[in-house]
Design brief:
With 917 residues, the chain is α+β, with helices and mostly antiparallel strands. The protein has 5 domains: 177 residues, no CATH class; 199 residues, no CATH class; 210 residues, no CATH class; 104 residues, GMP Synthetase, Chain A, domain 3 (2-Layer Sandwich), CATH 3.30.300; 137 residues, no CATH class. It contains 13 helices and 43 strands. A 7-stranded antiparallel β-sheet has the order 8-9-5-11-23-15-21, with no helix packed on it. Strands 12, 13, 14, 16, 17, 18 and 22 form a 7-stranded antiparallel β-sheet that branches. Strands 7-6-10-4-24-25 form a 6-stranded antiparallel β-sheet, with no helix packed on it. Helix 9 runs antiparallel to helix 10. The longest helix has 16 residues. The two termini are 20 Å apart. About 1% of the residues have low confidence.
Amino acid sequence: RNPLSSPENSMDFASAAKVNTLPIFEVSEEDETQKSWPVFGAPKTEAGQRHFEDADFGFVFASPVLLLKEGDREITLSIKMTYPECDAFAKENLGRNLDEVLDGVLTKMMAGSEARVSPSRGEKQAFFFKVFRQMFQVSLSTENGWLTVDHYLPISRIVDASVAEDVLQLRIQLSPDQDAITPYVPALHGQGYETHFPLIRLMINPTSYLFPYSLLMRFIVKEIQIDVVVKEARNLLMHNHLGQLDPSGPFNPFGPIPAVGSYFIISNPELARKQITDFEIDIEWGDLPIAAGGFETHYKEYALSFENTSFKASLTTLRSGRWQPIAENEQEQLILFSSKVCDAKEDSEEDAGEILDKNRRLSCASAVNFFRPITGQMSETDFVYSPEIKDGFFKLTLSAPELAFAHKTYPMLLTRVLTMNARLKHEKLFKPIPNTPYTPLINAISINYKAQATLHLEESRGRADTVVREKMFHIHPFGIEALSPESHRHIHLLPQYLSSGNLFIGLSASVFSGTLTLFFHMREDSTPETGTTPKTFEWFYLSSNRWTALKKSEVISDTTSGFLTSGIVSLKLPPQINQKNTLMPKDVYWLRVAVDEKPEAFCSLYAIYTQATKVTWQYQPGERTHLEEKLPAGTIKSAQKSIPGLGSIQQIVASFGGRPLEKQEHIKKRISERLRHKNRASNVWDYERLILEKFPQIYRVKCFDNMVSEADAKKRIRPGHLLIAVISRRVEASNDGSYPMINGAVLKEVQSFVKALASPFARIAVRNPAYEKIQVRCTVKFREDARAGYYTDLLNRAISDYLSPWQKIGYRAGFDWCIRRYELEAFIRDLHYVAFVSNFSMLHITAHGQHHYHLFDTVDGHSADGKVEEIRPLFPWSIPIPLKRHFIEPMNKVQTIQAEVTGIKELEVGSTFIITK
């Protein structure tokens, strides 16, 4: 939750979700080459943070209705949702249904922290599209992998009053030239979804205007409806009484000599698998009579009173092996031809008046009620019309007029006319030769249909009346999860990760039971203040895709002091833990540690080791060497005596604890101080000496009476409070610009120690110092120009040593420090390899909390010449440290360069590039 990220900060929403996989390290000493990782995934505030990947969160729907291989395709996904009664939004009176919640959230986000009138409906609609337009990354399964949908249209009641108040719709358009939507193939699409139907996948878009996890994760899904509209599908399977028809060229649907009862059967492999809601057939007729009047003119000599609307076909549907409806009077009669009014054109053979239209759309909506999709797995090649097929086809049976297209009448009529004309002597008395009967010819054919699938997620167990083919899956950061009402009491739109930070631990074992000991090798960089509320965390184990909290009695011991220092955690494993899981990688037992707030306050993690134990050195007279110096990591490699069942031994960290033999000088000093403070903390001097004596790892202590750790100077003074800042003795060398910190466990020990010796009315907080970074910027003429690169690095180290509080030379700055420009410049001039220094300035960088920084340039001062001669602390409890790299430019000749304010091009991202308010 980044407080600087808008609009998430107005609702205290998560602003990002990140994941990382920690590599498994071999045992190595703690040095600058060993990497550490934030234990709960939240990096520290210093520069050089680790790179994290965006976590995958989303959901997937599987349904045969998504089988969409061709044509213009439209998918409308309607998600019916609600909020739980106990949700926090209900307490804010934002409502429970989707419309009320979105309206409340959008209003609050738009208002922000400013007092303003309620936004208008038009403003809400615009903001709705701004938030939801890019909220998801939508993709569909195809034969080439996943097809990414570039654009979709989000719809709710906010923008469309016809949408139900608890429904969110996403509308997707696919053009004919886009890939065919095909069934899921594990080897191609990955993840291991248990389905053979096509998939639509919706994942949270980490770059969207609003990171939507906090908003969407609360919703409980009641129902999911997928509607598809397909136009101009041409992959058709067609038969008539003579056999199968080839749609690639013109064909006679009712045969060459159509008669009443001739039929035309049609279907589509993907349509046959779906519950359709509408069906149309688009026909382009061929060789139609072109004369005005159409069939009436064409059949004028037949004396049959044919009209353009006379030719009809009855519509039936194959259901359970029978054509439905059975009763002829219940079968819809489709008019096969239509006409249009046309004006005569000089370059056209068509006459003026009403002519036949070659394009005809047959609406087959009445047959939809009888249609039943085929069930079971059937490939496209297996889908053929045969006596074994029971469902999925439509039939058009020629039903009117009684003589059909007069093919049987034509021979007798033609013979009669020719005979009569032969008997007549004058051509003027000849009867016209009748036109050849029209034989229905289809030049092109396609279908349009609408289909629908609904997945009910709140219905009771055991829907015996239907076969549930649709499925919903959750996408987790490391796996997937199949969802159903039988296995989930409530199904949320997104996976539920309520904690701010999580550590997942995977363990492989042939038998996983009994007591488990885990050694957490931590970097000593935890940053909590003792005055704050302790951070709570909880252990979970994964069993059959369910995270279950470990009982308090099952967490036997924890010497990490809550992940504030290295230590051993002992757990009693419940027998229910298993490997039957899909939301995490398989064939591994999984544990999880979750923390609710400030995950960045804990130590960073080097590695985790199993089967850990702590060993204690037994004193032997005369053996004090490793009390003076630590026993290095990796020294102990075997047991003194063979231990049955023990394979190998590894010493992970150097020895700790114990004190060397006290020298006479130290004894006198300790006794003198004890006589003065009498083991009671009465004043600042007492606190500091008591702490330094008790905790040898602390290098320096500073007490600030009547003060609290507040960035605002006006709020710092607080009578009755004592703020203690402690500096670590050990300087931890590192290439990433890190600085030494006393871990949170030691801070708590210091607080407990001084509280026991102080007044019960004193309110004491212990913290690490604030580190204010200094960068020196100058142009230098070296005595040896040929080795300028070497001397630049040497000068960089010399400046850092001079500014470091832990080095024996230079400032050795403590609290209440002051760095003067002329002193630092004089130090550089006195170095034997420096001939001249010019263009000298300093940058002062200070952190305000986790996300705010302050940058000050000594050239940009308020003195008469525009320069500041010294840098002082921004906070009383801070100490200065040098940046890893100073800005040093070599020059070839001695010349005076006037220092200027540092420009953007000279700033470094992650170090000195800071955007101020």
